[in-house]
Amino acid sequence: MENNRLYVCSSPHLRDNVTTQRIMLDVIIALLPATAAGILFFGLRSALIIVTTVAASVLTEYLMRKGLKREQTVSDLSAVVTGLLLALNLPPSIPVWIAIVGAVIATGLIKQLFGGLGQNFMNPALGARVILVVAWAKYMTVWTEPFVDAVANATPLGLLDAATTATPAASAGVNYSYLDMFLGNIPGCIGETSALAILLGFAYLLFRKVISWHIPVIYTGTVAVLTWILGPEGIFTGDPLYHVLAGGLLMGAVFMATDYVTSPMTRKGIVIYAAGCGLLTVLFRLYGNMPEGVSFAIILMNIVTPLIDRYTIPVAFGGEKHVE
Amino acid sequence: MSLRWVFRGGVSAPHRKNTFESETSVINIPEKVIIPMVQHIGAPCTPLVKQGDTVKVGQKIGDSEAYVSVPIHSSVSGTVTRVEPMLYASGKLVMSVEIKTDGNQEIYEGISAPEVKNKDDFLKAVRNSGLVGLGGAGFPTHVKLNPPKDKEIDCLIINGAECEPYITSDYREMVENPSRVIKGVKLVLDYLNIPKAIIGIEDNKPKAIQMLADLAKSDKRISVQRLRSIYPQGAEKTLIYTVTGRKIPSGKLPADVGCIVLNVNTVSFIASYIENGMPLIQRRVTVDGPVVSQPKNVLVPIGTSLQDLFDFCGGFKSTPYKVLMGGPMMGIAQYSLETSVIKNTNAILAFDKKEGDLPAEWACIRCGKCVEACPMNLMPLEINRLVMANKTGELERYHILDCIECGSCSYSCPSKRHLVQSIRIGKDAVRRVKVNRN
User: Fold this and answer.
1) From the candidates B318, B367, B381, B395, which should be mutated to test the interface with A, based on the most A CB atoms within 10 A?
2) Are B356 and B321 in contact (CB under 8 A)?
3) CA atoms in the 13 A half-sphere facing the CB of A80
4) Which residues pair with B226 in a beta bridge?
5) What is the pLDDT of residues A261-277, one digit of tens each?
6) Low-confidence ranges of chain B (pLDDT < 50)
7) Burial (0-12, 13-18, 19+ Cβ within 10 Å), B228
8) What is the DSSP letter of A219?
9) Listing from the earlier edge strand, what are the strands of the sheet with B222-227?
């Protein structure tokens, strides 16, 4: 028997060739159109921010793993994804040092301190963004007009807010066309303005089966329906298309809310979560004191995800009460 | 027939049916065979022979008084050289009979077609034949055919799905002996008085579907159901659901939903035994895998060593790293090439290090692919988390005992987590707690 030493392990002995690394790479590829759009509209400064946050995120992960004496995980590419997502959710004019602080918060505090990949209780990039918004509101709400290095009046959502909180006439003349909003020719965060670029990424993620359509479609659909119903002139007077294209909704629905770690896994759970994201986004946008609410909405739903998972354990096959 | 019921989950594992066109070849009688006294689920047999005895082909060499057990017969003629515990396919030592063959393959005098007039005769004959489920599980067939009196069986399901990659042993039976398969189905329907039979075959075997459907035309009770080629289509629960829409409740058996499921090879063997009375002493085994020189289907005497079987297939192209009994999704890794083919061995596969190595585990990213893949609607990642944290008490909340260990979750995991392995550990812990409680 000595000369026939065979390797023994438990079945299955066959694995699909999909890897975590490949999934992360797919997310990076899916983010390339939005990244390119950001650089196109807001100039090379956006590229600087993107490179900075990615580098800071990867370095933070490397140093923390080393400091905590854990095996290195940089090669799983998740730190790159976090850095990239963070940059795409920052205004182009953000000071570089704040971007670095954001990357350290995202990867160091929210991800690594809670145990690394798979253990974070909220989306690292969004969590960091929210902390930055609260801590450095001044820098996080300065917007740049596309193609010109000038400070913009307001984002499309800012205009809406002005219209409802100030006099309606104040914004009557200034509005963004649907086409500009679709292409991304509007002020906003680096990667969130171009619906077209984000949808290209969405199509790629669907094609690669990295995500399913459920969360983005249910989330966006909920926002569309609710903003239509809860219109400024009474029920059913809202402009759902404007709300879908404005702000960070599509970016959030496609790339942030779908984060595996912080979204539910069961079908029922996914519906609750996505609809919850939509409802909270609308409440924050229409009745909150800030124009945007996507980040807060997703983070709140991230936090209740373990609870949703716990209460939506599916009935096992054949476990139904009535069997025909 | 189009599909009315589609089970959720499952994985599109590669088919790798390299031996599809490999007509069954008959192996030369090996110099010795080792026949274990356990080749079925149930009570082990007691050897009826001792060292020095001469035995002939088909002679009973082991039996048991227990109901859930079947006799074991010699597959060769020769002399008993050892009767002692020897290495078994599961890795344990099991009482076995080693026979040095004389090469004459003399048939035992007592072999004759059984006299079958009624159901009782039929069940007795099936037991005497030594038949167990040939699809892999190895459950004694006469027990399956005799469900409790209060369970009315209205549907016989013949499993020709063969959803595991590589294996073509069932397929070859369907295309080489289609009329024997149909004959076996008719026998079971007749003696057990079951009104209908459905033969389920995955759609990657169009030739088998065609041949059996043509033969089934002669009998209104029998139909052929084309199935999706998706793993684990051939698992009992998913198969019954697909062809009848019935779901076996948790912890119950096919008979609880009025079904009996038999593998195509099993039912075909019934026909051959009723015809000539030769017990189960040989079977078709698919020999394949990346390091096997000549993959083929081989008719093998029970007890032939894996080494002899590989030698017959031209040996290895390179050193085997892992050898499986069964398919790559549920097969059992073997310690040694000295273990022998038993009644429920449908395939022997050999892999190199590249394909055979256990991949390193990465962190779970909670992607939910295992939840999507689970045909039993479980959440493998949560069970894995709880088992690793030793939280046995919470496992039943996640229906751990409903796991059929098909391996779809581990297969689909991008982080290569050892999900099924941990579920097995968890199941064991839960069962032990239950035993202690009672």
Assistant:
1) B367
2) yes
3) 16
4) B201
5) 999 999 999 999 999 99
6) none
7) middle
8) H
9) B222-227, B197-202, B155-160, B259-263
Query: Which structure tokens are listed for A253?
Result: 């629905």
N-to-C CA span, chain A: 53
DSSP string covering A145-168, please? -TTS-SB-S--HHHHHHHHHHS-G
Task: Enumerate the residues of chain B whose CB falls inside 8 A of the CB of residue A314.
Answer: 371, 377-379
Say if CB A253 and CB A201 are below 8 A apart: no
Give residue A11's pLDDT.
94
- The residue of A8, A14, A117, A121 whose CB has the most chain B CBs within 10 angstroms, and thus the best one to mutate to test that interface, is A14
Q: What sections of A11-115 are H helices per DSSP?
A: 20-42, 44-67, 78-88, 96-103
Going by their DSSP bridges, the two strands B78-87 and B93-101 should be labelled as antiparallel
What is the CB neighbour count within 10 angstroms for residue A22?
14
Asked if the Cβ–Cβ distance from A16 to B366 is below 8 Å, we say no
- pLDDT at A317 exceeding the cut of 80: yes
Distance, CA of B47 to chain centre: 24
CB-based contact (8 Å) between B316 and chain A? Answer: no
Dig out the tokens for B378 from the structure: 């479980």
Domains, in order of start, for chain B: 119-276 (3.40.50.11540), 369-437 (no CATH)
Place of tokens 């892992």: B322
Q: How many CA atoms lie within 13 A of B251 on its CB side?
A: 6
Query: Residue B432: CB partners within 8 Å, gap ≥ 6?
Result: none
pLDDT digits (tens, 9 = 90+) for A184-196: 999 999 999 999 9
> Is residue A15 less than 8 Å (CB to CB) from chain B?
yes
Rounded CA-CA distance A48/A67 in Å is 28
ipTM above 0.85, yes or no: yes
CB A311 within 8 A of CB B398: no
Q: Which of A4, A11, A261 sits opposite B330 (nearest CB)?
A: A11
